[in-house]
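ingest -> validate -> predict -> emit
validate: passed (alphabet ok, no gaps, 597 aa)
predict: started
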Amino acid sequence: MIVLGINAYHGDAAAAIIRDGELIAAVEEERFNRRKHCAGFPKESVRYCLERARVSPEDVEHIGISRDPSAHLHKKVLFAATRAARSVSGMERSRSESGGHRRGIFGAVTERLANAARVRDLKEELACSLNIPKGKLRAQFHNVEHHRAHLASSFYVSPFERAALLSIDGFGDFISTMWGVGEGNSIEIVGQVEYPHSTGILYTATTQFLGFPHYGDEGKVMGLAPYGEPRYIEEFRDLIRTEEGGRFRLNLDYFRHHAEGVEMSWDEGSPTIGRIFSDEYVKRFGPAREPGSALTDRERDIAASLQARLEEVCFHILNHLQEKSGLTDLGLSGGVAYNSVMNGKILLNTPFRRVFVQPAAGDSGTAVGVCYQIYNRVLHRPRGYVMQGAYTGPEFSCEEIRAELERSSLAFETYDDREVTRRAAQDIADGAVMGWFQGRMEFGPRALGNRSIIVDPRRAEMKDILNDRIKKREPFRPFAPSILEEYTGDYFEQTHPAPTMLMVYQIKPERRASIPAVTHVDGSGRLQTVSRETNPRYHQLISDFYELTGVPLVLNTSFNENEPIVCTPRHAIDCFMKTRMDVLYLGNCAVRRNRKP
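emit:
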């Protein structure tokens, strides 16, 4: 049984494929076309999935997409009618003022209708992308509601037989937040929050206000928050208010999306979103920060207040969910689940005891959710696969790597399997900035030791070196530690596994001075716990570094320079050549800076 899942016409387009319940491949389109958060149709991702599974398009029996234009249709129609009536009323009051307003509304509606039409005609788009006649696609096609795909992605591949589930993001199919209970092959929905109320919208609007306008910039604000004080917490409690039953509501005076519409672009390139915050927001907090201008205490304190309020609202939902379900296992998904600071506090602020966060918690992960919603729920096939890591992308043979190095006229050395990690560990300990390209590429936003840049966490200067030589990013953003799983409790105040770098824990005070490059300003670290079973080569590398230094962790950041994470040996070589990395390990081959061929 072959099932193909797709996320398309939205940020982080992606595809995934399963065979008899086992995840064969999952990958984002941005890794192929090099456009960050690509929002078009993931044709290269689909091609890769079919190649990895060694099947032709006509072999696929079920194909699904994580959008359902018919979901909650009556609520969409009611909302649209209400907004249109308000628009007409506004036009009658001021014809000159409302012309642009009306164009904004109907332009947004037109764009959404066109988007929905493409979702409905998935078969046509897929056949065109694969350059085959539509009649060759014999699969049954499915539209899976956006948040049900999220929930499926965090339950059916989790280790839990029963679990409470939460999907929380911006919007999808008119819903921003959905929670339920998973058991066996079924998921029961027990609550949801509808458009226009959304924690994701709150976070994105504030991110824009703070001068970070690009899609996906929310993580910058999360990194900025520890530098401030939550002195605006009461203002944010007014911006988003909690209600009974785990629900919440935005104070819509501060936002534009519900009344005026927001310009959005979901074409083949990176997504763009127009301004979400309203003039009332500016009246409340003052002028928005210009991108690139100096940060002040106001911006730092707004970021701190936003983060604190997000945590309050999410724990409000989770405590309600736990009380109603009585369960202590939690599956978490949706774009807001990338807020690793919040995730790391769940066990401290709720009765949950185990958490599985989908490694690709954002919209790319819905491609996986689609596969399992179809396989486990629709087809009633038994569960059995557990997603223990996120290594589901392309890999390259030694021959392919050597051929690419030779085409590049680069001198390289080759080591055996045991020697390569020893030499690499010595390079790290000697202070080198090292590119590490191994095995299958990761799925989701985090480099997890296969497409990583790795340096010595003991050297405080490494943060500045990485930003100066390679990353070119804001100095307030932290770098992450990858730690041998068995030593987590020696360095961190919590020990729950975090294999996909989606938890932030406090580093023990007595350890902070010894690993300054991965210790954030508040004493925290966004850790990755590395097990020998999940990634044996990365575990061996860190073990060899531990043997040399007595420190069982390294600094791990994604292998890229203001671009998507590298996918191929060619991407890795290009990134190495245009930055000032010291050494590049491609499989068992090592290239050193300034070595002559």
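The CA atoms of residues 41 and 501 lie 28 Å apart.
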